[in-house]
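Let us work through a complete example step by step.
Step 1: write down the sequence.
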Amino acid sequence: MHNNKPKGTYMKTVGKLSVVLILILLFGSCSFQEKKLKKRHSTSTLIHIDPAKASRDSIPMSLIAERIEYIPLQMTDSSVLSYPYDFKVTNAFIFIREGNCILKFSKDGRFIKRLFDVGYGPGESKANSFAINESDNLVYAYDVHSRKGNIYDFNGKFIKTFDENLCDPSYWIGSIDYFQSNIFVSILLRPGTDYLFSSFDLINDSVRVLYKNSNTFTAIQEQQAPMIVLGNNAYQVTQSDLLFKERYCDTLFIVDKDFQAEPLYIIDLGSDKMHWEDFRDHGMFNISDGPPDGYWIESFVDTQSFLFLMAKSFKAPGLLCIYLKGSDSTVISSNSGYKTQDQLVYMKNDLDYLVPFPPMLKQTGQFFYYEECLYSVIEAKDFVAAYNAASTEKRTSSEYLRKMEPLFSKIDEFSNPVIMKVYLKSD
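Step 2: predict the structure and record it as tokens.
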């Protein structure tokens, strides 16, 4: 926008129309394909995803990664874990949500403590979502049902509650995260929901709307309770940036530290895209016709050299899509031996040849990323099977594996899961 006011009625009209057009491009309906939208330093990137070109062969890890580490999570009487669908990584710790509690592990997997007792008593919490403020060493444990939350330090000391309404009190919260003194809120799409992403300022107790809902319902649907409500895992929070993508919109937005949202990528699924109206009429309110066709982007992670995308479908195999920024190219892989949509898509481990790497968690399809590393979960039985099947030469092929051999050889099928840490390549 210009500081000088345009002269004349004609110029005023043109100026107003320009502002309106910009707002429509940024925050209006996303049913069209944006090709030249501005981001921080250049035009946004258009990425084409063609499911028909997906290979059934696994993508080799050497394409994206330099090396691998394995973090066995110590099992004690206080740290018996199921499959961890929700965990956060910091420079020194791994925090895992288990049974509405949060467990703290060292970065090498040693169990340290449970941060609180589960409940609604003094100092207790029931966390079905949580956020980490690494700058101040704080944990935000939140119950999305009761809308109550507590703040703890990294040692589990109770600090205070934050049971304010993080968004409109009538909206259903899917999950929370932490960004720049704000609680980032992902909201479930239901009738009457006006916005889908927002932030709650912990300093001045105010709500900032980040993305308005442009998906509409029929008059009858507005009065109905949906049969299926999908969560939204398509967001990423780092120390400097917040990124999100609404399921039925092609645009992936970035929000900087000043909370300015700009288009970063345009994801083009072409005719294979599942549209909002199809899911609304043949899934959300009516499942008698079977699930709708088409793909959507379930989750993503943006790194220095790559953009990882998980494309899901109700009827077809999930797709791992990797956009290589250096070569401006995309590789796509699906499941070999596909049976259900919840099957993992693995990458071929051609680095240490031990355990195949599933970049996304099972069922949820989420990526976990911290400081140029991807993290994922290997169930103990799968780790044991792969490790025992490997030759002695492979199990001792590096100094790291030789050092870890005494620990790895003690893992059995009843052990806690293993976190696989993958160091990504940089340009």
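Step 3: interpret the result. The radius of gyration is 23 Å.
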